[in-house]
Structure formats: C-alpha cells, structure tokens
Amino acid sequence: MSKEILIIDDSPSVRRMVAMTLQQEGYEVTQCEDGAEGLDTAKAKRFDMVITDQNMPNMTGIEFIQAYRNDPSSSGVPIIFLSTESEGDLKSQAKAAGALGWVMKPFEQAKLLAVVKKVVG
Amino acid sequence: MIDEETQEIFRQETEALIESLQECLLQLNSTPEDMDLVTQVFRDLHTLKGTGAMFGFARLAEFIHDFEAAFEQVRSGNAVVTPDLIAVSLKAYDLIVALLEGEDPAAEKDAELKAALSAATSGDAAPAAAEAEVVEEAAAEAKGEIEGWKLRYKLPPEFMEIGGNPVAILEELLEIGGPDTKVEAIVDGLPALAELKPNELHTAWELLLPADADEEEIRDVFMFHEDSMELELTAIRAAAPAAVEVAEAEVTVEEAPAAETAKAEAPKADTKKPAAKKSGSANVQMRVSAERLDDIMDRVGELVIAEARLSDLAQKLNDPNLTEVVEDIRRLALGLRDTTMAIRLTPLSSITGRFQRLAHDLAGKTGKDFDFVIEGEETELDKTVIEKLSDPLVHILRNAVDHGLEDNDTRVAAGKPARGTVRLKASYSGADVLISVQDDGKGLDPDFILGRAIDRGLVSADANLSRGEIFQLLMAPGFSTAEQVTDLSGRGVGTDVVKSTVEALRGSVEIESELGAGSSFTLRLPLTLAIIDGLLLQVGEDRYTVPLAAVEGIVEEPEAIRDGSDPTTTVELREKLISIMRLREIFETGGERAEFPKVVLVRTGDQQIGLAVDRIIGSYQTVIKQLSPMHSRLNVFSGATILGDGDVALIVDVAQLVKAQGLDQDGKEQAA
C-alpha cells in the first residue's frame, strides 16, 4: 500500500509542486491550505507523514505541530517542517514542538524526496 | 519536473501576491501604524520569497530576503513605517515585478535598494547591507587518509514518538559501512521496567564503519537530530598523511532519489517563462486558459442558437412531448449560458491596485495632496472588458489629477478643502456597468473647450452645441495638443483613444462637469460581450433586436401618429412628451403595415424614447455576432444575431440611433 502524506502550505504552487514530486514517486498526497485545516485533516486520519509550512493564515506551522502533538493520534507520525533560511530559530522551535525534521526552502525536488524517503521509506 | 499548470498556478499566485503587497504598502502610507498591514506585507514578501526561490528566481529571493528583513524590523518594533520606507518599498516592489517578468535590471539596483531599505528601517545610511556576504568554505585539512569511522550515538528519547525510526537509521549507517560494519547496542541507560514507556528510546549504539566515507555523509544520517542527541564520531586514519579532497556536502543527499527525478528538474530559464508571459487574468481561483473560456462561450452561443431553432420547430409541430423536452433543453441551455458568463466575470478589484499605485505616484509628482477613494470594486465585468479598461482608466485618472485638481493653495483660496478627492466608482445599472472617475477640482470650462475646438477646426464657429456635446469634444481626435502635454498626462493613450476603446466594447463615455466644483467621466459598459437578452421586433419584412434591459414598456401606437411618415415625431404618452422613432421609415423597410402597431419604450441615458414597430415577437436569447468590418461604420447597429430559422436580425444600438436622429437631449432639436 502506498504511503500517505499530508502537505500543509498556503501557497498553491508550492503545495502542487510538493504533491507532484511525491506523487511521481508513488506517494499518496493530501493537501491542506493552512494549519487549522491541516489539524482537522491530520486528526481525522492517520498519515504516514505530515509536511507543513510555517507562515500561514489561521494557524502557523508551529502552532499546528503543537496542537497536533497534543493529540494522542499524532504519536509516531513524523512531521517535516518547511522553513526558509531566515527562520533559523524557528527550526528549533519546530523541533521543540515535535517536528521530526525540516526542509529548507527553497528546496530542490530531489532533496525533498530524499528526506521523505528517509523518513517514511 | 514543473509542469505548465503548476507554472500557471505560480504565475497567478505571484500576481495576487504582488497586487496585495502593493495595496498594503499604499494603505500603510496613510495608516502607518496599522500592524496588521505590516504583518501582511511581511507575509506576502515571505511567500513570494519562498515560492520565487522554488521556481528558480534566485535573485528575486535574495532581494526579497532583505526587503523582508526591513519589514521584520518594523514588525518587531525596532523601526516604524515612514514615508521614506514606503517610497523605497514601492521601488523595491517595482524591482520585484521586473524580476518576476523575467527582466534583468542592473545588479546595482538590488544593492542600492537593499541599502535604502536598511537605511529606512535603521536610520543608518551606510550601505552596509548592500555588501555581499562572503561565505567562507572550510579548507580541506590535509591529514592522513581516512580508513573508517568509530561512531557512538544515542537518539533523543522521544525519537519514536515524533515519528522517527531507529531501525532506518541503523540501516542507513550499515549501507555506508558495508557488510563488515560492527554494531553494538548499549542498554545502560534503560530505566527500570516499571518506569519504561514503550514509546521512549533509551538505547545507544556503537558502530565501527570500515569505510572511507565523508564525515558529512555520516552526520547526514542524523540530519535533524544532531543538536538533540549524543553523537561521537571519530575518524580512523591511516598512518601516511595524504591530501584529501573535500567532497561537496550535497552529494550524500543527491544520492538517494531516483536518477530520473534529478534529470527531470526543469532548467531555471524555463521556469521563468510563465511569469514573463503576462496576461491580465489576476483571479487566483481561475485555472482555465482564457482561450478555452472563449471557446466554451462560442459553443454556448451556438447551443443557444440551436436551442432557438429547436423551439421554433417544436412550436410548429405542436407536439406536447417534444415541447416538454424542448422546455428542458431551454432551461439547461440558459443555465449553462449564465454560468459560462459568470465564469468570465472578474471583479474590478483585480485591477484597482495599479490605480492606487498610480494615485500615489501622481501625488508625489504633482505635489497635490488628495484622497483616492475606490467604491464598488467588487463590481464584476467581463474579463475582456476589464483588461481593455485599464489603460483608458489610467488616462482619465491622470487627467483628473493633472488637469482637474487644483494645487492645494489654489483650493484653499477658492474656499475648498486643501485635500482634493478623486473617486473611482463602479456600480451596476441594468445590464450595464458604470465606472466613473470623479474629481472635486476646477471643472471643465465649456467656453474654453468650444473655443479650442473651433480653433482646431473640429467644429464650425457657428455650431450650436449643447453642454454635453461640448464636453464630448474633449474626446475628439486632435483636440488634445502639444501645449497640453505634461509629464503626466501627455503620455499613453489620448482621450480620443479612451472613447474609441470604450465604444469598441459597445460602451459610451459620459462627461459631466461643474465649473469650480469638479468633473466626472463615466464609462458605461455592457456587462457581457457575448450574449444578451433581447426583444425581437418585426418592422415591415425585417426583424430587429433591442437589448431587453433597455426596454421599459410596450404600448399600442397612439392613433395620433399612425399616419405620419416622418422618421421621427413626438407624442404625449402617459402625460409625458416622448420622441418616437419610426423604425419602418428610418430603416426604409417594405412590407405590409401591421393592423395594430406597437411602440416600444426604451431608456437611453436619462431619456425615454419610443420605437414604433409593427409587431413584438418576444424576448430572445441574442448571441451577438460582430458585423463585418465593411459594415462596422453602421454604428446604429451594435451587431447581428442569427435567428432560429436561420435569418439574421440586426441589433439596434438605441443610443446611437437616437444620436443619429438628433433626438438626444443635449442635441439641437430638443424633443420637448
């Protein structure tokens, strides 16, 4: 069965690019536009991995991670945090909140895939 | 691989972002303390940077990085929004637009603007920020050749809880070390069974990797966890020292994915293409190419015509079963028509950003302080209309500020508020949309305009023109002259082009002005270009259509005017004097006169006019077909439509017909 990945990002083009990259490799991708929508989706169904952006309306990425990790259903679900280079300290905040790792924007598709493969196999 | 659709989404997304960015910057100019706007600017920049970088706009991302940093200063309270900052930001915005459009402005511009941005938010004028950061690469240390690695690590206890897989880590290390790798688990740190939580990880590992792997490659296995785990990594070196080349850090990461993914990556030049191709569609949610939309519209038009033919046929056959099906098809066709037209509608707000920017720039250039107010920007118009309106509106807006508004001192002396107001207003009026630009400036002087028009030979000296006609002269080709050209208004399209553009869209321009109080230019435009509800009329042997939205009533033709044969006449109807146009006489059609002819009351501008016709056939879905270029000078017809039986009916442009018959209220022959 193919692995299911949830991607949360308010930018449609980034979301689509991530989704396409992953779908080409046979992953199943669900997309959400912000942290709040992502939280509902992640709680409703267990994903093999969640990728979230930081800067989004309604709920930021870190707020999402905190809220999701407060829910027992998140146990064992890896979260990858998308971050830009200017947000160095956010990386550690995201980790403290319960992210497994991060990918720096801009990322190359190959790099993203490498991380995803490493995390979910 | 970035496909075309993704690039299109990127293009639309960035268009919306830069539009929002500009709007926020302009709003910040008047409300510099609005932190929500600052946050929005920051967020827009941030998203632009992130997506831009991913789509290959490295220079853009780098530039925005500093732009964003300036607003971070404001956001964190270390700096405030000043007119200076807004001015620089708008220039920075221009650079962003240029870069997104694939232009290649001089590189100094980036540095210059970065310095200015940093100066505007730090009070420090030194262009320190402009200097490129020099990243020093660690030089390779020439030590003894590496034969292997000794490794001891302990992952954070919550590692599994947050989705990590310790086995996967071991497997990765084994892959680096090969089959001869020695592994030992160290369970000293394991708590007593009673305290052990099954999700927590307490095991440490010691490995001996017999491989000359790069240190980075091994550290990469722990990529996210290095700062929250214990890791001891010692190189086992051979005795003889030799120079080692440091491999690129990226290599390890690039190894994992399939080769095709790496190959498929689009080259940078390609990803820039969609942004360079600039089209007007700014609606983020629309993901259909304009061509396809036009195609659908065409087909829906054909469908509506076919449906009309079917209706005709059903009526003749008078079969109830067929009639029922025809009714259904009719309902569906009309629904489809409405939906298709709605798809093409775009709110005016999709182009108002550039007007705000223009107003801001005009204020700076002319030194005139004024408020720019936009009302009704949610008003929707056909996409094609909106695109074509941008230039004319820019022209009118420039004129309003440049020629309309007085400078602040003159205003005060005239007893007006020092700050002028320019209003861009959009609203619906029946099947039309009205877009007006109003200023409270000095107004137009009809005598001056008439004098100039006579000088230019546009009208004869003894012409008896109404006020409205005189104002229309402003838009006559050749009225505007070099004398009048200023830095602001003398560029781009002329006022005559405004008129011809609007008329090409089946619209009209109305000018009103009060000397000393201000002027308004109103563009009246049809809501859609393709299909209208029409009223089909029989006149002699021919059929004509008028837009149903213009029709206000139908009455029996009064006996009093039945026998006349002048093209126009006047009659008292419902206690009002109304001008009547006899279409039979005007269009010189033959055929029998009807026994009970009718008068259709139509509204044009502020005037009600009667059209004398033989018979009202009924309302009719009118798919507008343009007249051939050969007939395009027949401006009393706005087009033609094909009827169910294959005949052609001309669409009467009531306003033009009224004008051609000299019945317009401003005209010489006042009707009443």
Descriptive overview:
- The complex is a heterodimer of chains A (121) and B (672).
- Chain A is α/β, with parallel strands linked by helices.
- In chain A, 45% of the residues lie in helices and 21% in strands.
- Chain A contains five helices and five strands.
- The longest helix of chain A is centred in the N-terminal third of the chain and has 13 residues, at 12-24.
- With 672 residues, chain B is an alpha+beta fold.
- Helices cover 41% and strands 22% of the residues of chain B.
- Chain B contains 20 helices and 21 strands.
- The longest helix of chain B is centred in the middle third of the chain and has 28 residues, at 290-317.
- Chain B is elongated and about 120 Å long.
- The chains are: A alpha/beta (121), B alpha+beta (672).
- Chain A: The modification 4-aspartylphosphate is found at residue 53.
- Chain A: Residues 4-120 form the Response regulatory domain.
- Chain A: It comes from Thalassovita mediterranea.
- Chain A: One of its GO terms (biological process) is phosphorelay signal transduction system.
Short description:
The complex is a heterodimer of chains A (121) and B (672). Chain A is α/β, with parallel strands linked by helices.
Count of discrete structural domains of chain B: 5
Oligomeric status: heterodimer
CATH class of chain A: Alpha Beta
* Helix/sheet category of chain A: alpha/beta
Query: What's the CATH topology name of the largest domain in chain B?
Result: Heat Shock Protein 90
Helical residue percent of chain B? Answer: 40-55%
Main sheet of chain B?
A: 5 strands, mixed
Given as residue ranges, the uncertain stretches of chain A (5+ residues, pLDDT < 50) are none
The largest sheet of chain A, given as strand count, sense and whether it forms a barrel, is: 5 strands, parallel
Number of helices of chain A: 5
**End-to-end separation of chain A:** 12 Å
CATH architecture of the largest domain in chain B: 2-Layer Sandwich
- The overall pLDDT average of chain B reads 77
